[in-house]
Amino acid sequence: MTKLALRARVVFPVAAPPIEDGSVLVENGRITRVGRQVPAGWPVEDLGDALLVPGLVNAHCHLEFSSLGRRIGRKGIPLPEWIRRIIEKRPTGKATAKAIDAGLQESLRCGVTTLAEICRTETDAYRAAVDGPRLVLFQESIGFSQARAGSAVAAVEARLVELDGLANSMGKDRLRLGVSPHAPYTASPSLIRELVSTALGRMAPVSLHLAESREELELLNDGKGPFQVLLEERGMWDQWVIARGSSPQDYLRMLTRSPAALVVHGNYLDHPSLAMMARHAGAMSLVYCPRSHIFFEHKTYPLPEALDLGVRVCLGTDSRASNPDLSILSEMRVAHRLFPQVNPEAILRMGTLSGAEALRWDEVGAIKPGGWADMVALRLPTGATGLPHELLRSVLRDDQPVERIWLGGRELSTEPAVAHAGK
Ligand SMILES: [Zn+2]
């Protein structure tokens, strides 16, 4: 693989306006030119009536649940109850490594070429990652009581050193690291602040589940409710950890020092909190997980409000414990169905460039000269006509899987069996 020219009905660079009858030149895995002309001597592959878009970016996932055949619990299950069940279903040992491998392969087949993973298992489970999408591994940390913060930070730092070994062997083009204090109901403010400092020392991104459920808001404000009961049950409760009258905004404030912060879910962020995120949009991003949101029957997601305010919104699948699969294209389609007033190009940006920007990964998420040739071809439904954004809308209304996938200029199979052996 040295030279490749792809032509499509429309190329969506995302970082630049769409190009009808566009072409992309690829050399040694990287994009060298985007436009209409192909210089003489380049072998052109015509994709026909297809849209060529950047490889999709999944900004939030827990791969350890990728072997689950179905979601855990019933639709509308309260989050604290679901967490009780998930603790029981968590795989261990070889089963975890197998699930992670299955999730990596499934993601690639769905056109996800960059993935942010919440990592809590042994490093060896990620050896298969060399065969999967580009990864950001966010080392997870849990420690609610004040007394736990010191040992929890030490554990994260030790694990990061271990993961550095894997990252060095794979290269920074394939694997990067971040830190993830889990959520306000499992990580104390002092633990979160210390982990933000750890992230700053490495210029690494931070990921935090925040404002996910009403029960979380109740815990922050009153120090009571189902999460207090759950923490009590697990011997983790400490009444001095959260100041009464706290809110998600207090946690956003802790994240403002991060080199890059991913605020995961944010289902119940109010207007002042979203405005604060918009003010810090250079470093702070919101990760919307549409189908996980539907599964838990949360109140309507504040997507139009967040986008209007200027919040960077990207997309995540969360895990198969609350989602039927790991397809970002499906998340884009659901977001489009729920919010038809949002421009389809904004939805495409959420599933590509916004995720890359949130992760501070400059060379992915867009079709641009110098960037990696991570791309996905989406077949247009028969008879689709109109301007580029109308064609994109017709693909978002359709249900066809991604047609073709390139990772670093190398074409991957969309078929399960071949996908593994063919790379
Ligand atoms: Zn999650």
The helix tally amounts to 15
- Based on Cα principal axes, name the global outline: globular
- The CATH class label of the largest domain is Alpha Beta
Structural class: alpha/beta
Distance between the termini: 13 Å
Number of spatially distinct domains: 2
- Give unreliable regions as ranges: 418-423
Walk me through what this model shows.
This protein has 423 residues and is an alpha/beta fold. It folds into 2 domains: 3-54 and 366-421, Urease, subunit C, domain 1 (Roll); 56-358, Alpha-Beta Barrel (TIM Barrel), CATH 3.20.20.140. The chain is built from 15 helices and 16 strands. It has helices at residues 79-89, 93-109, 149-170, 189-202, 214-222, 226-233, 248-255, 271-279, 290-295, 303-309, 328-338, 344-350, 353-358, 388-397, 416-421, and strands spanning 3-11, 19-27, 30-35, 44-46, 50-54, 56-61, 112-119, 134-141, 175-181, 206-210, 261-265, 284-288, 312-315, 375-379, 404-407, 410-412. Strands 1, 2, 3, 4, 5, 14, 15 and 16 form an 8-stranded mixed β-sheet that branches. Strands 6-7-8-9 form a 4-stranded parallel β-sheet. Strand 8, helix 3 and strand 9 (175-181) form a beta-alpha-beta unit. Helix 3 runs parallel beside helix 4. The structure holds zinc ion. The site of zinc ion has 6 residues, from loops.
